[in-house]
Design brief:
134 residues, 5 helices, 5 strands, 37% helix, 17% strand
Amino acid sequence: MRKIILNLAVSLDNYIEGPNGETDWLTFSDETGKVLHNFLKEIDTILYGRKSYEKWGTYVPEENAMEFEKTFYSATNKMNKYVFSKSKTDLKGSPAIVANNIAQQMQDLKKHSGKDIWLYDGAGLISTFMNLGH
């Protein structure tokens, strides 16, 4: 059975983002790029909250971006995506929308063949998954 993997950046003082959603404290290096690219080899599906998806789910780096950023988003933009949202049902890129029955839908998803699944979001969705035992 596939696993749902939580992989995210957390500051040493336990923050995922600033009070206004900013992630400007994150920096990337060639080493970080290698780690992220190795991680991408393990997954084929990404789970997002709506806000994270709207910001990063179909992100395309600028022409002058670092090469690892371009290849990273090129890879993630080809993956299966699920967005947890009760407020929107039509999002750019046409991800699968999960509005209810999260536990059952995730059990079903884990049973499908494929690589592991990346839970990419903030504390709210992470807490939901932990409370559901995923």
